[in-house]
Amino acid sequence: MLCLPQQTTHPQHIMGKDPLRVCVTGAAGQIGYSLLFQLAEGNVFGADQPLILQLLDITPCLPALNGVVMELQDCALPLIHDVVGTADPLVAFKDIDAAFLVGAMPRREGMERKDLLAANVKIFKEQGNALDQVAKKSVKVLVVGNPANTNALICSKYAPSIPRENFSAMTRLDQNRSQAQIAAKLGVPNSAVRGCIIWGNHSSTQYPDVAHAEAEVGGRWVKVPEAVGDEQYLRGEFITTVQKRGAAIIAARKLSSAMSAAKAACDHMHDWFAGTPADRFVSMAVFSDGSYKTPEGVMYSFPVTIAAGQWKIVQGLSIDDFAREKMDATGKELVEEREEAVAACA
Ligand code: NAD
Questions:
Q1: What pTM was estimated for this model as a whole?
Q2: Which of 182, 219, 284, 307 is the most exposed place for a label (fewest CB within 10 A)?
Q3: How many whole angstroms separate alpha carbon 177 and alpha carbon 298?
Q4: Residue 268 annotated to the active site
Q5: Centre of ligand 1 from the C-alpha of residue 201, in Å
Q6: Which of 59, 123, 132 is nearest to 345 (CA)?
Q7: Does residue 144's CB lie within 6 angstroms of at least one atom of ligand 1?
Q8: Average pLDDT over residues 112-139
């Protein structure tokens, strides 16, 4: 185990509140590198919330993780009470309040999607077991590592003592991408677009939906379809741009999205703890209760509102035939993934 000694700098900043214990897995990876600084700065849990960071990676990556621990130390940040780096999930998950499960096996050349899913869900089975044993029962678990929705489902299945509602998977990056595309199309700031929804799986079958989104144009909020005035774009190029954005980043950077993924993970966890403003909803993959005729018991991305740490699926949005078809297709994929995952874990 790699440890950073307890910080004694700026003790006045850390006296008011008990530290939160936050775990990041895959902490030696590229998303981890961006995520940890945002966390340590106070962007997620608040500028006055001390933190104990419990970082997990696999044994071969412990030297790199040690470098990350040293860099965190060198930032001399007032909120960081302690940093632990380890390859043991039972150490990393001990008494944690929040977990960012980022670590996953990357796709190797010649690997089928099915093989990747099987390898990854086994990691999340093991991590679910470990969470069950040592994490706080109130822990909030965000799964980022792909296939995120199904990994979250398996993780929860193997952590039966932790409520199902405490597990979610990330589609916030897709939501942020949608928002940014619409803002760019309209020539308005990102803050002038709200209510973009991601339905279903964090995969190419996801359905980015702006039928209920609004944009502030000329001083008033109007529905995005009205503001954009181009149905062909919204039902074609817009959707494929968001769905294929991850691949476009890889083609350009030769590496997958990391800064934007880390920012989205921070947004997701921030809103889960702090709640959503009265006029906003956000997208999170959570256990489907069959809302909007989606398959029950898969981790389906819905628009949710959050209060007191509890998410609630937004109800009553109208779904037209175009949306229905797309929502069914992504739901079908999640059911297939669940079957493959359960078989791989058996
Ligand atoms: P990366 O390869 O740079 O880092 C992954 C890290 O995870 C590595 O350090 C690796 O050693 C570690 N790891 C592997 N198995 C582990 C295990 N069993 N326990 C702990 N750590 C383990 O990858 P990255 O770019 O940081 O991406 C991480 C994951 O996030 C990938 O699965 C990627 O596909 C996914 N991702 C998801 C989204 C989303 O929107 N949901 C967006 C971007 C990336």
A1: 0.95
A2: 219
A3: 24
A4: no
A5: 17
A6: 123
A7: yes
A8: 94
